């Protein structure tokens, strides 16, 4: 069974449908969308920069992704507590 093609646009649409109905202001929605894509760009930069430095091992990339996941989980927890 083929895997779905994941795109940033599809992820944004999911995020927007789930969380943006409470944000009626078009300008605020634009800022949210820009922040969403800026975050994606930061992730790409982190991964690409690491790979450009030298021959990075799969284990190093996995450790980097785990660190990013841990940071994101922490942020989600902060959001849940309304601290972020």
Written overview of the protein:
The chain is mostly helical. It folds into 2 domains: 9-53; 56-84. The chain is built from 3 helices and no strands. The radius of gyration is 16 Å and the shape is globular. The mean pLDDT is 86.
Total strand segments: 0
**How far do the termini sit from each other?**
39 Å
Question: Cα-atom Rg, whole angstroms?
Answer: 16 Å
Number of helices: 3
Describe the secondary structure blueprint for this structure:
Blueprint: H1 8-19, H2 26-53, H3 58-80
Protein traits:
84 residues, mainly alpha, 3 helices, globular
Short précis:
Helix content is 75%, strand content 0%.
